[in-house]
Design a protein that fits this description.
The strands form 4 sheets. The chain has a two-stranded antiparallel ribbon with strand order 1-2. Strands 3-6 form a two-stranded antiparallel ribbon. It has a two-stranded antiparallel sheet with strand order 4-5. It has one domain. It is of the alpha+beta class and 114 residues long. The chain contains 3 helices and 8 strands; from the N terminus they run αββααββββββ.
Length: 114
């Protein structure tokens, strides 16, 4: 009996392929998240921060934009949900806007985002 026959080699190749593809997707999503956070933290364009912290008027503007426009402005391809937390990890609602900004099929604490 051979240790690595054709069927086992194909199974191993398939498993390695799945691992490599999954890893590439995860890295791509992490890169997108970091890029979006950099844009949101900037003080120009779609940035939502000012010298005092979160600029409520900028968050309201972002909340009023169409989902696809926000996605394009952030330069991302995947669905997202932007929400705010306090130091204890509790979700904070900014100036009575929706629970989050983003794709409404994503749920945050049981509630749809956006």
């Amino acid at each position: 009996m051979k240790w690595l026959d054709f069927d086992r080699a194909m199974l191993l190749l398939f498993a390695l392929s799945i691992f490599i593809i999954a890893r590439a997707v995860i890295i791509s999503q992490q890169d997108e998240a970091e890029m979006a956070m950099e844009k949101l933290a900037s003080d120009n364009g779609i940035g939502i921060l000012d010298s005092n912290g979160i600029a409520d008027e900028k968050v309201r503007m972002l909340d009023g934009m169409e989902y696809d426009d926000v996605k394009e402005s952030l330069g991302i391809k995947n669905d997202f949900c932007l929400y705010f937390e306090d130091e204890q990890g509790n979700i904070v609602q900014v100036d009575h806007i929706s629970r989050g900004i983003g794709y409404n099929k994503i749920h945050v604490s049981g509630m749809p985002c956006g």
